[in-house]
Specification:
Protein Binding, DinI Protein, Chain A, 2 strands, mainly alpha
Length: 194
């Protein structure tokens, strides 16, 4: 909507709304303050719990250990490919052009295969990590539901979605404590090494 039309509409609404509000204010009887229904609410820091939980830390540790092992394998493979590339460069002047091109294609094929393997392993690790962390998330939700039921809480909000909340509404510490008791670790089904 263009600015002049929006301004005209706003002016019209204000003109119509002011007298109506004045008349309504004159005829409305005084009323008692509105009663606010109490809604038992809690706040939980899911992100903080997912970082601090023992099981999540164990998952991170297992994944990073495997990632390091993969990196060692990749480094060894890169070293081997550099040697092959250097040998290929030395053979360029010795080999016939067709033979050299064939070796170049073989080398490029080896490089592509290594890159494919690296991407596949990264994807496998990411999927394995997500699956393991999902176990922690499920247990976390179960613990929060249990706390809510025990305390008669009707609404649980993510702390990340709240601007201001009374500290007494935060059940994160209790949730973390119970989660660590219920799920101290998660065995990650890691893909095998080479």
């Amino acid at each position: 909507m263009p600015a002049p039309r929006a301004a005209a509409l706003l002016t019209a609404l204000l003109i119509l709304g002011v007298p109506t509000g004045l008349l309504h204010a004159q005829t409305a009887p005084p009323s008692a303050p509105a009663e606010v229904a109490e809604l038992p609410v809690a706040v939980v820091d899911v992100q903080g719990i997912m970082r601090a939980a023992q099981a999540a830390k164990a998952i991170h540790e297992q994944i990073e250990t495997r990632r390091s092992a993969y990196q060692e394998e990749v480094s060894a493979e890169e070293k081997r490919l550099r040697t092959v590339e250097q040998d290929l460069a030395q053979q360029r002047s010795i080999l016939a052009p067709e033979a050299y091109q064939q070796k170049v294609r073989q080398f490029q094929s080896q490089v592509a295969e290594v890159q494919r393997q690296v991407q596949m392993r990264k994807r496998e690790l990411d999927e394995t990590f997500a699956k393991a962390m999902n176990e922690v998330r499920k247990s976390l939700v179960s613990v929060v539901a249990e706390i809510a039921e025990q305390r008669g809480i009707k609404l649980v909000l993510f702390k990340s979605q709240i601007v201001i909340a009374e500290k007494s509404l935060d059940v994160s510490d209790e949730t973390l404590k119970r989660l660590n008791e219920r799920l101290p670790t998660v065995k990650v089904d890691l893909p095998p090494l080479k």
